[in-house]
Structures are given as structure tokens and as C-alpha cells.
Design a protein that fits this description.
Largest sheet: none
Shape: globular
Strand content: under 5%
Helix content: 55-70%
Order of helices and strands: HHHHHHHHHH
Radius of gyration: 23 Å
Number of strands: 0
């Protein structure tokens, strides 16, 4: 798409998204979904294509101006809360009795937010650097969590599990660390150790073997002096 489509890229992405969503609705209506199929690539593609539509749209000056004017963080936050509330109201209207209640309303609302509003959150935050929510995300502890995010993604599965007939854990240490708040402390500890003693040294090695075009990450350079010299060059 990036190489072959130059003029109609956004329109093509939009139609691909519509087709993927129609395929998903058809599969749901005919019972072709399961816990396994939801994890497959073709079921995850709509979210990626939807975000790509936003990226293509922001390259157009009129779309970017519209986003700067209307996609403000407080508007997106209000829309997110409204989606969750409306989904919950509809869910309780369909299953008013606690006996017949299906606990999927909130999960479904979060799915809608993830599919349609998550990309909007990113765009609104990126375009409004002075907003309260953006300044909150720039808070030092949250920036540190952001640096550990990939490590947390990798290591949290050791501690965030639910014992069931299908899940057996034979290590008493992991069982002991699977409760609250131990699992949060263990996940952050493992992620920090992984980041500072494995990932960061290897990223620094990668920067030495293939120097980046721009400094970007001064903490991965050899020293502040080398950073200044590289910038000057």
C-alpha cells in the first residue's frame, strides 16, 4: 500500500477496513468465532487498518486542521465514557435479570473503544501537547513505565495468571507471586531487570554497530561527549 498507492491511499485503506469489519460481523453472525480465532491475524487487522487510515488522513492539511480543532483530549475522553455507559445500559436492557445476565457488556464496550477510539486517543494526545492529559503522560513515573512497557509485556505473563483445571503451575514461587500486590511488584521488578541488564545493553550495542541517523536516544550513546560530537558532525 505504501509503495503502490500514492493518491488513493486513504480511500483504499478505508474500504479495506469496511470489508474486514463486514467479514468480522458475518463470522460472528454465523458462529465462526472462538477464543482461538479472535487471536488470529485476520481478526486483528481492522484495528491496524483503522489506525493506518488516521495516519494517512493526518498527512492531509485539512484533515490535520480538523483534528487539531475537534479531536481534543477532553472530547475523546467524553466520547469514551459515553460509549462505555451506553453499552452498559443496552446490555442491562437486554438482560435485566441477574440470572440471565451475560457479563460481556463492559468487555464489549472496551472492545469498541479499542477498535474505534484508541487511535483517536493517540492522535488527540499527539496534536495537543499542552493539554492536561498530555502533560500527565509526560510525568516522569509514567515515562519510566513507558520505557519498561515492552519488558512488562514480556514478563507479566509469569505472574498474571488464573489457576484453573486448564492452568497448572508447579513452581511455588510463581504461585506465591500471583496474588495482589505481589504480582505487580514482581512484574515491575522482572521488567526493570530485563530492561537495564539485557535490553538496554543490547540496544546500546546495536547503536554502536549501526549508528542511527539522528541521536534520538542519548542514553544509548557512548557518552554525552560523543553525542555532542556526533551532533556537531
Amino acid at each position: 500500500l505504501l509503495l503502490l498507492l500514492k493518491r488513493q491511499r486513504m480511500a483504499t485503506l478505508a474500504w479495506i477496513f469496511v470489508g474486514l469489519m463486514a467479514f468480522r460481523v458475518y463470522a460472528i453472525m454465523h458462529g465462526h468465532t472462538s477464543d482461538v480465532t479472535w487471536r488470529r491475524t485476520y481478526y486483528q487487522l481492522p484495528e491496524l487498518v483503522y489506525a493506518a487510515c488516521f495516519a494517512a488522513a493526518l498527512r492531509k492539511e485539512n484533515c490535520r486542521r480538523w483534528a487539531e480543532r475537534y479531536l481534543k483530549p477532553w472530547i475523546v475522553f467524553t466520547a469514551t465514557v459515553a460509549v462505555i455507559i451506553l453499552r452498559e445500559i443496552r446490555h442491562h436492557m437486554l438482560w435485566p435479570s441477574p440470572i440471565d445476565f451475560h457479563p460481556t457488556g463492559f468487555t464489549g464496550a472496551i472492545g469498541i473503544v479499542r477498535t474505534f477510539l484508541f487511535a483517536v486517543w493517540i492522535v488527540s494526545t499527539m496534536l495537543h501537547g499542552d493539554s492536561l492529559s498530555t502533560r500527565f503522560l509526560e510525568w516522569a513515573p509514567l515515562r519510566w513505565i513507558g520505557r519498561l512497557s515492552y519488558s512488562l509485556y514480556l514478563w507479566h505473563v509469569l505472574f498474571f495468571f488464573r489457576l484453573s483445571p486448564k492452568v497448572t503451575v508447579n513452581l511455588p514461587v510463581l504461585v506465591a507471586l500471583s496474588g495482589r500486590p505481589a504480582k505487580y511488584l514482581a512484574a515491575f521488578t522482572a521488567a526493570a531487570l530485563s530492561y537495564y541488564f539485557v535490553e538496554k545493553p543490547l540496544m546500546r550495542l546495536g547503536h554502536r554497530l549501526a549508528p542511527p541517523a539522528t541521536p534520538g536516544r542519548p542514553d544509548l550513546m557512548e557518552s554525552p561527549a560523543s553525542l555532542v560530537e556526533t551532533t556537531a558532525t
